[in-house]
Amino acid sequence: MVDYGGAMSFYANVIKVLIASPSDTSQERDAVERMLHSWNSNRAETEKVILLPRRWETDAVPAMGGTGQDIINQQLVDKSDIVVALFGTRLGQPTENAISGTAEEIERAVAANKPVHVYFSDAPVPPDALEDAMKVREFQKKLQAVGLLGNYSDSDDLAYKVRNAVETDLANLNLVTPTQQDLIQTGADPIASFVTQPQNRFSQNSVRIRNEGDKTAEDLSFKLEPLDGGAPVEILNNSVGATIPGNGGEYQWPVARDITSTQQANIHMQWSENGEIKTRTHSISLI
């Protein structure tokens, strides 16, 4: 549910629009982003759609585990719904897999069957940028063999053309207006807690599992894994799976242990739901 531009809250589809381009087109990227925000202000509540701009320089999160382009692909390209690619006089830096980062993003999005719109600037090329511009034109000719490309004379012209393209995509996506019921996830939702009754050092306490979901968790069992090097926690009658109804049903297992030995543990739960095995792990305090 969103509250956009001061309007009352409403449910909407959120469409992620990746604006991909080399570094020399920052003004064009800004213009496209402004257009998307303007569309939201004027149309979001009526259409029940939010267009969410995504840009590598503002939305990519530093992370290890791959090249910079790999991270951008995973965080932005793969999670986008629409890709808009812009070129001015520069092609951008080459990557391991393509002649530039933007080119790789285009290829990856096309391979994933996402709507991709590519635009090239018609503005005069400065004399000191002629060599780079020739590389852009060569790439443009390559793309012309596999798709219909767009051009633009300035930022305002680009924003107008991208708006038309995105509206065409929205019509083709056949979006269904979400409702509150659509956003409610159904299923079992077991949450564990420790119930302590410290009358003495060796009291029998309990692990309580409450099912906050709307489906029954059948044959639920669990094990505790101490996180602080403490002694193993003995669970009584845990070998027998419990059936816990949804909507607040709960079950308790007595615990026999020295309550001073272990304070924190992971609880690993397993249950059956409509014939499918489900698992969940979360931490639990034992004090």
Task: Please tell me about this protein's structure.
- The chain is of the alpha/beta class.
- It folds into 2 domains: 13-180, P-loop containing nucleotide triphosphate hydrolases (Rossmann fold, 3-Layer(aba) Sandwich); 185-285, Immunoglobulin-like (Sandwich), CATH 2.60.40.
- The protein is 30% helix and 30% strand.
- It has 7 helices and 13 strands.
- The chain has helices at 26-47, 56-59, 68-77, 101-111, 130-144, 155-173, 180-183, and strands at residues 13-20, 49-54, 82-87, 116-121, 150-152, 190-195, 204-211, 217-226, 234-235, 242-244, 249-256, 264-273, 276-285.
- The strands form 3 sheets. A 5-stranded parallel beta sheet has the order 2-1-3-4-5, sandwiched between helices. A 4-stranded antiparallel beta sheet has the order 6-7-11-9, with no helix packed on it. Strands 10-8-12-13 form a 4-stranded antiparallel beta sheet, with no helix packed on it.
- Helix 1 links the parallel strand 1 and strand 2 (49-54).
- Helix 1 (26-47) runs parallel beside helix 6.
- The longest helix has 22 residues, at 26-47.
- The model is unreliable at 3-7 (pLDDT under 50).
- Residues 16-109 form the DUF4062 domain.
- It comes from Enteractinococcus fodinae.
Task: Name its key features.
DUF4062, 287 residues, alpha/beta, four-stranded antiparallel beta sheet, Nucleoside 2-deoxyribosyltransferase, 2 domains, 13 strands, Immunoglobulin-like
